[in-house]
Design a protein that fits this description.
- With 199 residues, the protein is of the alpha+beta class.
- It contains 6 helices and 5 strands.
- A 5-stranded mixed β-sheet has the order 1-5-4-3-2.
Length: 199
């Protein structure tokens, strides 16, 4: 099988992944609240299986931090520049990425809300599997939106961000910064649910 065929296969697989609906709404945000909320707190929790997978990711981030000559991460430190997100533990990085994306998307309304994200899946594609049959990067979890004042549940939805990759084209387009890119895509879906009318 030549390179051109492998590249076309990789592109087709990625397009298929993009076509799937990444959000399953359990409880939509009320129309009067859509576009009128601001997220003032983000809580990130990991399922047992996600936490087990996270060990290797966080070890790699810590090593990257060491390689860049940065001091070991300590909670409570000032928010770093975006270029250093890759050196942070996942839950810390995810929170910062969420903040950035929500701000960029204009989630800056009058009603203050808290967002709880329960991550149940985080996986990255295996290079050998990508070459042979295709594999995927995936970040999935349940998002619950609460009123920041009285903790009343306002909305709940499940986000599944999955990017399929195959062949040389898939490997080349995938690049690096997988954790950060998946987190940004996940955050963009959250922003869409807070901003747009339900279908």
């Amino acid at each position: 099988m030549n390179l051109r065929i492998l590249s076309v296969m990789g592109l087709a697989l990625m397009m298929t992944a993009c076509a799937a609906n990444p959000v399953e709404v359990v409880q939509p945000l009320a129309p009067v609240q859509r576009g009128n909320v601001e997220v003032v707190d983000i809580d990130v929790a990991l399922s047992e299986s996600a936490a087990e997978r996270m060990v290797a990711f966080d070890e790699k981030a810590a090593q990257t931090r060491l390689n860049e000559g940065l001091a070991p991460y300590q909670g409570g430190a000032a928010k770093p520049v975006e270029e250093h997100y890759e050196t942070l533990p996942f839950t810390v990085m995810f929170g910062y990425v969420m903040e950035d994306v929500l701000r960029e998307k204009g989630v800056t309304g009058a009603e203050k809300v808290r967002v709880a994200v329960d991550i149940d899946t985080l996986k990255t594609a295996n290079a050998a599997m990508m070459w042979l049959a295709g594999d995927s990067d995936q970040l999935s979890g349940l998002v619950t939106v609460y009123d920041a004042a009285d903790n009343q549940k306002l909305s709940e939805f499940y986000v599944d961000t999955t990017n399929n990759n195959a062949g040389l084209l898939g490997i080349a387009m995938r690049g690096s910064g997988i954790r950060e890119r998946l987190s940004a895509e996940f955050a963009a879906h959250v922003a869409d649910q807070l901003l747009t009318e339900a279908e």
